[in-house]
């Protein structure tokens, strides 16, 4: 490690980086690198994004044209290997230039600036955003200097420099973790593991290998938290029992080091939190998220009573089972973040009877894995590209459904069905990606909320 650089604005002085991808991660990363003294060249295949970056002073050019580079920061969604490497990434890698995630460069900047702030990484197929936000909320409530971001946003490199007692809480996707080189997480959590992003990682083994990189840089005394509610993550915990790190097993529904007994979060010393008081944390999946956040908070010395108080005041995250409207006794819940069947299952499990809005670009297997929850669906309203496939699956199981096509058609149809059938919940939990109709899941969720609010206005007339 180089000698500390006290001035944050000079921490990368004399270094030259390329940034490929200028979206919500890449553009802030490029701006942060410039602010830290680096020379930056950036590229995006989208002309409008290149123009937006140039407008804020970023030098535009292809990384392959740069004569010397200390590294390429590749936006998480751009592949460097599977399924097909981006041509610019391939050209730069052929020259021996290392590829980084911006989280690793944040780690290097913090250490090079002389700060020993600690880093927490949180990953898993589902629940990582909520757990990241919840832990940051708990630490802040405990008076600990904290900055949270990564996959959740903001971009890791956009986070401020923290002092020695500060804690960075980073949501780490598999796309980010596969590019980790020397980053150390003094505490990390692996929540769960179900098939996802297999085109990017080749197969389930590749996906698991990417996730497990969260722990490879850990040192003696570091903490590794593992969910045990799925077999793959429970097995990963056993593989990391090498005596170096402290392993903490957590669960939302079965005995573990920290687990939910009913709606009480407990450990060997007793109750940590009453989850019935935590309105933003419904269901067994959120009980597991809460257990992980508690384990990490306890590792940083947060008192138990502070953890319980902070969980009760946690506001939750947008598009994750958030109530957005109530109309004539029908509650509209936005769970647009549920882009796969496993995530949708967690939302369906929280309701006895509902009208379900689903559809978009389905993942492998579609909604077939959700069959155990079909009995809870009074009626389904389907949208997006794979609505016909979802409809066929539901019809074969005897579930009432209709194809609305768009969210604009789906919301009033779902409301009408709820009133007709006599159920009090309309749940948007698509079990599919949004890119056939929306820029992202957040745009889908916002549109759902807008349409539900319109129903409120209409009923009030």
UniProtKB/TrEMBL annotation:
Documented EC number(s): 6.3.2.9
Keyword Nucleus attributed: no
Keywords, sorted A to Z: ATP-binding, Cell cycle, Cell division, Cell shape, Cell wall biogenesis/degradation, Cytoplasm, Ligase, Nucleotide-binding, Peptidoglycan synthesis
One GO MF term attached to the UniProt entry: UDP-N-acetylmuramoylalanine-D-glutamate ligase activity
Catalysis performed (reactions): UDP-N-acetyl-alpha-D-muramoyl-L-alanine + D-glutamate + ATP = UDP-N-acetyl-alpha-D-muramoyl-L-alanyl-D-glutamate + ADP + phosphate + H(+)
Domain Mur ligase central: from-to ranges: 122-297
EC class name: ligase
Domain Mur ligase C-terminal: 319-431
Pathway connected to this protein: Cell wall biogenesis; peptidoglycan biosynthesis
A Gene Ontology BP annotation from the UniProt entry: cell wall organization
Annotated localization: Cytoplasm
Binding-site residues for ATP, renumbered to this chain: 124-130
InterPro entries (UniProt xref): Folylpolyglutamate_synth_CS, Mur-like_cat_sf, Mur_ligase_C, Mur_ligase_C_dom_sf, Mur_ligase_cen, MurD, NAD(P)-bd_dom_sf
Gene Ontology CC terms, in alphabetical order: cytoplasm
Pfam family, one: Mur_ligase_M
Family of the protein in this entry: Belongs to the MurCDEF family.
Function: Cell wall formation. Catalyzes the addition of glutamate to the nucleotide precursor UDP-N-acetylmuramoyl-L-alanine (UMA).
Listed name of the protein: UDP-N-acetylmuramoylalanine--D-glutamate ligase
Upper taxonomic lineage: Bacteria, Pseudomonadati, Pseudomonadota, Alphaproteobacteria, Acetobacterales
């Amino acid at each position: 490690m180089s000698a500390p650089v006290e001035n944050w604005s000079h921490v990368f002085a004399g270094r030259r980086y390329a940034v490929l991808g200028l979206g919500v991660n890449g553009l802030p990363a490029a701006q942060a690198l410039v602010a830290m003294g680096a020379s930056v060249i950036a590229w995006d295949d989208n002309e409008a994004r290149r123009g937006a970056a140039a407008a804020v002073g970023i030098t535009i050019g292809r990384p392959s044209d740069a004569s010397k580079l200390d590294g390429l920061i590749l936006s998480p969604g751009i592949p460097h290997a599977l399924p097909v490497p981006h041509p610019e990434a391939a050209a730069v890698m052929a020259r021996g230039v290392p590829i980084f995630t911006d989280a690793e460069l944040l780690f290097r900047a913090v250490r090079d600036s002389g700060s020993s702030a600690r880093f927490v990484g949180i990953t898993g197929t589902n629940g990582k955003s909520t757990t990241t936000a919840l832990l940051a909320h708990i630490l802040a409530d405990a008076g600990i200097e904290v900055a949270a971001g990564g996959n959740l946003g903001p971009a890791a490199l956009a986070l401020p420099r923290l002092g020695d007692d500060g804690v960075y809480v980073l949501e780490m996707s598999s796309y980010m973790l596969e590019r980790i080189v020397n980053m150390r997480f003094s505490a990390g959590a692996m929540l769960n593991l179900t098939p996802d992003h297999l085109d990017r990682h080749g197969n389930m083994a590749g996906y698991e290998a990417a996730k497990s990189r969260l722990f490879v840089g850990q040192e003696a005394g570091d903490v590794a938290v593992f969910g045990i509610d799925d077999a793959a993550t429970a097995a990963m915990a056993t593989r990391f029992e090498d005596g170096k790190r402290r392993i903490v097993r957590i669960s939302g529904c079965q005995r573990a080091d920290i687990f939910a007994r009913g709606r009480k979060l407990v450990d060997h010393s007793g109750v940590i939190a009453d989850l019935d008081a935590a309105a933003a944390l419904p269901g067994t999946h959120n009980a597991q998220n809460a257990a992980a956040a508690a384990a990490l908070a306890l590792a940083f010395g947060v008192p138990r009573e502070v953890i319980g108080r902070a969980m009760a005041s946690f506001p939750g995250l947008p598009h994750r089972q958030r109530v957005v409207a109530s109309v004539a006794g029908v509650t509209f819940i936005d769970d647009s973040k549920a882009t796969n069947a496993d995530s949708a299952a967690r939302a369906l499990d929280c309701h006895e009877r509902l009208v379900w809005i689903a559809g978009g670009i389905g993942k492998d297997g579609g909604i077939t894995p959700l069959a155990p929850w079909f009995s809870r669906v009074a009626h389904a309203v389907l949208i997006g590209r794979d609505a016909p496939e979802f409809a066929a699956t539901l019809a074969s199981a005897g579930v009432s459904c209709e194809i609305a096509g768009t969210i604009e058609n789906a919301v009033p149809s779902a409301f009408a069905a709820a009133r007709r059938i006599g159920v009090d919940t309309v749940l948007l939990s698509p079990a599919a990606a949004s890119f056939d109709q929306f820029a992202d899941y957040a745009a889908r969720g916002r549109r759902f909320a807008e349409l539900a609010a319109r129903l409120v206005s209409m009923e009030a007339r």
